[in-house]
Amino acid sequence: MSVKLLRIQESRGERDAGPVAKEKVLAGAPQQLTEHFFTNAKENFFCGVWSSDAGKWTLTYSEDEFCYIIDGEAIITDAEGTSEKVSTGDAFCIPAGFEGTWETIGSVKKFYAIYEE
């Protein structure tokens, strides 16, 4: 069996657009767009590009996520109130079990890779 390299190219993935769930929103009326590129055979690894406009909402992670900010900036705050600003060019991981908030300043676009057991 031959395994082939899968290239990731914007505007070639499955697109899903809509608002952040109302029950999570703390400020604004953020809209998001996910362009999903890959799901593995076990359906526990995913990657794509996600973007949103301004707003703030709660986060609860059951998965591990690698993020690379393509454009824009956001503030991620953990449950203890510690905030970190992430912006264009930043790469970081959000581990499973993380709880807190995400606040998009203006608009933001990130590449994501998610693993969930």
Write the layout of secondary structure elements.
Blueprint: E1 14-19, E2 25-27, E3 31-39, E4 45-60, E5 64-78, E6 83-87, E7 91-94, E8 99-115
Antiparallel strand pairs: 1-3, 2-4, 3-4, 4-8, 5-6, 5-7, 5-8
Fold and architecture overview:
By secondary structure, the protein is an all-beta fold. Helices cover 0% and strands 64% of the residues. Strands 1, 2, 3, 4, 5, 6, 7 and 8 form an 8-stranded antiparallel beta sheet that branches. It has one domain (15-115): Sandwich (Jelly Rolls), CATH 2.60.120. The chain is built from no helices and 8 strands. The mean pLDDT is 94.
Give the number of helices.
0
CATH class assignment: Mainly Beta
What is the terminal separation in angstroms? 26 Å
Number of domains: 1
In the predicted model, the low-confidence regions spanning at least 5 consecutive residues are none
Largest sheet: 8 strands, antiparallel
Which structural class should the secondary elements be placed in?
A: mainly beta
Order of helices and strands: EEEEEEEE
What share of residues is helical?
Answer: under 10%
β-strand amount: over 45%
Distinctive features:
64% strand, Jelly Rolls, 8 strands
Q: What is shown here, in short?
A:
Residues 41-112 form the (S)-ureidoglycine aminohydrolase cupin domain. With 117 residues, this protein is mainly beta.
